[in-house]
Structure to design on (161 residues):
């Protein structure tokens, strides 16, 4: 991939957290609505979202998204939003109770994996995953597996010529 070129997200996705699958073992995924202001929605539609160091936490029975960077919307100038403010996630009460129980387990955390627009009215959604941190050994094994798959693809491509 050439330097300076932005990698495209999957179809329909505004932003993805590609590091999440490498750093964590993703156990279970949840779809949540996200509470945004007007300038944040416009900035998200332009794809100005970064999820790299973001996480979610449960405070007072509500789920909050922390560390997501949504760039300020250019034309809004003085009426803009704060880029890294905490944002509330919208989940059913039963899902929140389930997450509270699971996050109390040792080593489990909530990690946002992607941001996208969904439905006929085009609502902003975030996919959060219940995740367990990987050990260094697991990360090395993932790199080795990826390299082997790349070598196999290269060999197959060269054999077909």
């Amino acid at each position: 991939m050439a330097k300076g070129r932005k990698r495209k997200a999957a179809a329909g996705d505004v932003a993805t957290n590609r590091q999440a699958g490498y750093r964590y073992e993703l156990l279970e995924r949840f779809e949540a609505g996200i509470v945004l202001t007007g300038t944040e929605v416009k900035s998200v539609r332009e794809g100005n979202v970064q999820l790299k160091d973001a996480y979610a936490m449960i405070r007072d029975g509500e789920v909050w998204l922390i560390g997501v960077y949504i760039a300020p919307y250019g034309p809004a100038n003085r009426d803009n939003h704060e880029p890294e403010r905490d944002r509330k996630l919208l989940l059913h009460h039963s899902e929140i109770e389930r997450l509270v129980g699971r996050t109390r387990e040792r080593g489990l955390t909530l990690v946002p994996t992607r941001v996208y627009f969904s439905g006929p009215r085009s609502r902003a959604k975030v996919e959060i995953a219940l995740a367990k941190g990987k050990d260094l050994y697991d990360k090395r094994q993932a790199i080795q597996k990826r390299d082997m798959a790349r070598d196999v693809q290269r060999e197959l491509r060269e054999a077909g010529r």
About this structure: The chain has four helices and nine strands.
